[in-house]
From TrEMBL:
Taxonomic placement: Bacteria, Bacillati, Actinomycetota, Actinomycetes, Micromonosporales
Stretches that traverse the bilayer: 20-41, 87-108, 115-137, 157-177, 198-223, 256-275
Membrane topology field: Multi-pass membrane protein
Keyword Repeat among UniProt keywords: no
The ABC transmembrane type-1 domain, residue ranges: 83-275
A Pfam family the protein falls into: BPD_transp_1
Similarity comment: family membership: Belongs to the binding-protein-dependent transport system permease family.
Keywords for the protein's UniProt record, in alphabetical order: Cell membrane, Membrane, Transmembrane, Transmembrane helix, Transport
Protein name in the entry: Carbohydrate ABC transporter permease
Cellular compartment(s): Cell membrane
Superkingdom per UniProt: Bacteria
Length: 290
């Protein structure tokens, strides 16, 4: 029997049924406007002229839709170069996180080193520190890497190395690995499999949902980030798409800038739609053990 906030007896009554559907409709409409409204404004604003997009009150639909705004944005802002840079940085951050964060989570979950719980607690404690507080020490580290004394400005490593130190992704992976029965690990050990072989042949194939979630988080974090790439990628040749659009926005019409923002958002939306099933299955798979 399924338990709900409203009993079936109340649903059969006229008043209860009316209140239920009214409340449900209001909630759906409000949340739709909150989430879809900005996207609708951005897409329609990219089709408007410079005067129309700035007028008050705004128009709900462009009076004279201009698809040329997209071609102007592509050429004037050199979006091909900016998108390639961002894709390159996102792909590198994805590879680094999948390899190193997965190894760290596997070690904490299955290998259980000495003081593993203490290390995990310290990593999770870093989630309580505001990101802005870490900007200065991270920047000082990037301009003079300890021991090696190397300047990483305008280097992809300036984006990749901070992205690897992601306590949240390590925690997600560890929780998923914890849900994998120990009997499977014991059987692999009895068959003579090494820890690395067990990770590659058993753990990773079973962990595709959570790896999909981590992949989405890794890619979108790099794609949407603005402040950190602006600090460590000062050269016009190494800018990300968000920094590049901001840099050109001063002397570019607003409708062209909005069109560039639409183009920049398309890859992440497509990436999300492809892996949307992995989000729910990955986030819930580690909630139950056994």
């Amino acid at each position: 029997m399924t338990r709900t906030l409203i009993s079936s007896a109340q649903m059969r009554r006229g008043r209860g049924k009316y209140m239920y559907w009214t409340l449900l409709t209001v909630v759906i409409v409000v949340f739709t406007l909150v989430f879809v409204g900005p996207l609708y404004w951005m897409v329609t604003g990219a089709l408007k002229s410079g005067q129309e997009i700035a007028q008050t009150p705004p128009t709900l639909w462009p009076e004279d839709p201009r698809l040329t705004n997209y071609t102007d944005a592509w050429h004037q802002l050199d979006l091909a170069k900016l998108l390639f840079n961002t894709f390159y940085y996102a792909a590198g951050a994805l590879v680094f996180q999948l390899v190193l964060d997965t190894a760290a989570a596997y070690a904490l979950s299955k290998l259980r080193p000495a003081f593993g719980n203490v290390i995990l607690a310290l990593m999770l404690a870093t989630l309580m520190i505001p990101a802005m507080v870490l900007i200065i020490p991270q920047y000082v580290t990037v301009i003079d890497l300890p021991i090696l004394h190397v300047n990483l400005l305008d280097s992809p490593l300036a984006l990749w190395l901070p992205a690897v130190a992601n306590a949240f992704n390590i925690f997600l992976l560890k929780r998923f690995f914890d849900s994998i029965p120990e009997e499977i690990m014991s059987a692999a050990i009895m068959d003579g499999a090494t820890p690395l072989r067990t990770l590659w042949s058993i753990i990773l194939p079973m962990s595709r949902p959570i790896l999909g979630v981590v992949s989405i988080f890794a890619v979108t974090a790099v794609w949407k980030d603005f402040l950190w790439p602006k600090l460590v990628m000062p050269s016009p040749e190494t800018r990300t798409v968000s920094v590049g659009i901001y840099a050109f926005s001063g002397g570019t019409p607003m409708n062209v800038v909005v069109a560039a923002a639409v183009i920049a958002a398309i890859p992440t939306i497509v990436f999300f739609l492809i892996f949307q099933k992995s989000i729910m299955s990955g986030l819930t798979a580690g909630s139950l053990k056994g």
